[in-house]
Amino acid sequence: MHAPEIIVTNEADDESIQIIGNGLNHFNDQHVGYGDRQPLAVLVRDPQSGDVVGGASGRTSLGLLFLDLFHLPETLRGMGIGTEVLRRFEDEGRRRGCRSAVVYTISFQAPQFYERNGWVRFGEVPCDPPGTSRIFLSKTL
């Protein structure tokens, strides 16, 4: 066999990413003995148009709830909607058997929002622009 070609790109197609993910999932499933990963989304829709305007998305796997993306338009912030979305996201994680949840946010985003909702910082890594950091939080469910 010839040595494989190694390519660095910012344009990987969906099929290539899926091959990587499937390979990792297969490895994990063999090691653990099962695969329980499931996507999860809590959507916020405009009642008039029916369009999704925000919400949260992530996944559950091996007893962990991963919150990957969370966004609400500015017009919906400060009304308790974000807290309700987060509560429903956590509740679904619990229903699926998750014991803990993890998220990372950026210091200029909403770390205090998560902390007000019972999440605890467990790490912080400086990033750009200077003075900014990635903040890692977890919550026992």
Query: Regions with pLDDT < 50 over 5+ consecutive residues?
Result: none
What is the CATH architecture annotation?
3-Layer(aba) Sandwich
- H and E string: HEEEHEHEE
N- to C-terminal separation? 49 Å
CATH H level, superfamily name: Gcn5-related N-acetyltransferase (GNAT)
How much strand?
Answer: 35-45%
> Treating each run of at least 4 consecutive H or I residues as one helix, how many helices?
3
| Biggest sheet, spatial arrangement of strands | 1-2-3-4-6-5
- In round numbers, the mean pLDDT is 96
* Helix share, percent: 25-40%
Outline: globular
CATH fold assignment: Aminopeptidase
Number of DSSP strand runs? 6
| Rg computed from alpha carbons, rounded to a whole number of angstroms | 18 Å
The helix/strand class is: alpha+beta
CATH top-level class: Alpha Beta
User: How would a textbook summarize the main sheet?
Assistant: 6 strands, mixed
Number of domains: 1
Can you summarize this structure?
Residues 4-141 form the N-acetyltransferase domain. The protein is an alpha+beta fold and 141 residues long.
What does this structure look like?
The protein contains 3 helices and 6 strands; from the N terminus they run αβββαβαββ. The protein has helices at residues 14-32, 81-95, 111-116, and strands spanning 38-45, 52-61, 64-71, 100-106, 120-127, 132-140. A 6-stranded mixed β-sheet has the order 1-2-3-4-6-5. The mean pLDDT is 96. It is an enzyme of class 2 (transferase). It comes from Ralstonia holmesii.
